[in-house]
Specification:
Layout: H1 5-26, H2 31-39, H3 44-54, H4 58-66, H5 70-77, H6 87-97
Length: about 100
């Protein structure tokens, strides 16, 4: 039985976040990219929420992003991770979830 559409989207988003988190773990300076992304957002409420989150230590934010909870899933929906993954990395992950085995 194939997973429902929303489960596939959630799994794909989780994988994108996991790989982004791994890159930030390997290069903590990338956290600055998150703050830059948030600073460009037009939604002041969301911007303020993420500015608060970004003030906590990376391990705490990392745990929130990867949490297998409704809150973790919601957080992944609007995580400011743009620019962390390369186009090739994103394409590879998208293909994983399209059941496409072609190399990225």
């Amino acid at each position: 039985m194939t997973p429902c559409y929303h489960q596939t989207i959630d799994a794909r988003l989780r994988r994108l976040v996991e790989v982004s988190v791994q890159k930030i773990d390997a290069n903590p300076a990338l956290v600055a990219q998150l703050a830059q992304n948030v600073a460009r957002w037009p939604n002041p409420r969301l911007q303020a929420q993420w500015q608060r989150r970004l003030r906590q230590p990376w391990p705490a934010l990392r745990a929130e992003l990867l949490a297998e909870t409704e809150q973790g899933a919601a957080l992944r929906q609007d995580a400011p991770l743009g620019g962390i993954l390369s186009g090739a990395e994103r394409t590879r992950i998208m293909r994983e979830f399209a059941h496409d085995a072609r190399p990225a």
